[in-house]
Amino acid sequence: MRVGLIVTCLVDLMRPGVGFAALELLESAGCEVTVPAKQTCCGQPGWNSGDRGSARALAMKLLDEFSDCDYVVAPSGSCAGMVKVHYADVFKDDEYQLARAKKLAARTHELTDFLVNILKIERVPGTFAGTVTYHDSCSGLRELGVKAQPRALLAMVPGLRLAEMSESETCCGFGGSFAIKFGDISAQMAAAKCAHIRASGASAVVLGDLGCMLNIEGRLRKEGDTTTQVLHIAEVLAGRK
After folding, report:
1. Domain boundary residue among 118, 148, 169?
2. CB-hemisphere CA count at 13 Å for 232?
């Protein structure tokens, strides 16, 4: 099985260890993983901001880079959602590229969904001594139905206890450009999310999108919380936290 790994822009630039953790998880499950060296962006930021030209160009580049893979996986619900859900709109006026986009979309998965529903793994390499809580990132949850999958995987981690926070499905306030355009509202949403994290009693919050991770960690540190860990689920599952 040849699996293409979309590293994602934020992972590549801000927390490359997440990409290596995803790679380790896929390889440990027996996948032949390819990581196109010149991959860049899926086009989501441009698409969400109305820059249709740049979004289309980047989407076309991704189609070319991953078209020969049996599956495509991203450690991000938002990037996987862009390919699976929004590429159909990007190429709606181009019959040929739309057909290619639909074929790729059918083979594209968010990481935890792929591990659970395609690979059907029964064990993970990592261990974790302590209690974590889980934040459901908006795109993964609402566009792709990622909810039970990460929890099923966390249940496989020796030593880990999951304590659900209140309003785990409520947005953390990031939302890409939303956090820039509506900074005050975003900050209040992030503060509310951090309050729920602390109330859970967990020593770490785990999630599946780096944008949410950066937003939540930034708010925790700004509020003086220097101890609560903010971890991508790939890091926990692979034992790279």
Report:
1. 118
2. 29
User: pLDDT for 82-132, tens place per residue?
Assistant: 999 999 999 999 999 999 999 999 999 999 999 999 999 999 999 999 999
Q: Supply the DSSP symbol for 129.
A: -
Both 73 and 27 in one domain: the answer is yes
Exposure letters 27-50 (e unless 16+ CB within 10 A, then b): eebebebeebeebebbbbbbbbee
Would 124 be classed as within a structural domain? no
Nearest alpha carbon to residue 217 among 59, 18, 25: 18
pLDDT, tens digit (0-9, with 9 covering 90-100), for 162-212:
999 999 999 999 987 788 788 899 999 999 999 999 999 999 999 999 999
- Residues whose CB falls within 8 Å of the CB of residue 166, separated by 6 or more in sequence, listed in order: 196, 199, 200
d(C-alpha 24, C-alpha 33), whole Å: 9
Q: Return the structure tokens found at 58.
A: 């980047």
Report yes or no on 10 lying in a domain.
yes
Q: Does 169 share its domain with 234?
A: yes
pTM of this prediction exceeds 0.90: yes
Same domain for 8 and 112, yes or no, is yes
Domain carrying residue 58: 2-118
CA distance 220 to 202: 13
Number of domains, the chain: 2
Residue that the structure tokens 């409520």 belong to: 170
